[in-house]
Amino acid sequence: MKHTHTRRGPLPFHRPEPPLQVALIEPEIPPNTGNIARLCAATGTRLHLVGRLGFRLNDAKLRRAGLDYWDAVDLERHPDTAALFRRIAPAPCYFFSTRAAIPYTSARYQPGATLVFGCETRGLPEELLNAHPGRVLGIPMCSDRVRSLNLANAVAIVLYEALRQLQDPMDVSPRLAPAGTGRNMEQRPEISSPGNV
Questions:
Q1: Closest by CA position to 66, among listed 52, 49, 87
Q2: Is the pLDDT of residue 128 over 90?
Q3: In this structure, are residues 88 and 114 in contact, taking their beta carbons and an 8 Å threshold?
């Protein structure tokens, strides 16, 4: 499916080096993984698919959700979590679960870090969570009637928080001015350096 939409603004984007990584453990729903693949292509993030998938990689719904961006996806496939951890070592890992007691915003993400998510119906295996108690993070929700967020939404929330933390501190791109100032945009304050006094 080819799309000709090219309306992109000049927003700066700083890709961390090494790039961030997302690992999906036995994902089940093709459109979720397709949307996550598109997200990874847009952010220069490596995508790892681990274990038994609930679909084939040529599934039409998977391909449709990723549109025509699959050629831009840095995709790796692993038979199990042991193979994944051998591949990404020594990169730090963060594990995401609805049972977490630590909010995802509390982590200090590092370049090359791997964000690990479980499948839509079961989440991450209990033994994996128990093995990394200090690195199990969650996304706060206000309603007891909602068990979890959509997997693709959860990955997007966490990934962009990690990218936000890792943006270039010298970035001087425009920022929205405070409400009521009568201005639309303002520049970030310039950061002084030894050669800029």
A1: 49
A2: yes
A3: yes
**Residue 40: CB partners within 8 Å, gap ≥ 6?**
22, 46, 47, 73, 74
Q: Which two tokens stand for residue 138?
A: 């969650």
pTM value surpassing 0.70? yes
Residues 51 and 79: beta-carbon distance below 8 Å = yes
Measure Cα distances from 9 to 4, 12, 44, 161 in Å: 15, 9, 18, 21
Q: Is the pLDDT of residue 188 over 80?
A: no
How is 114-141 classified by DSSP, letter by letter? EEEE-BTTTBS-HHHHHH-GGGEEE---
d(CA 82, CA 51): 10
Structure tokens at 158: 């966490």
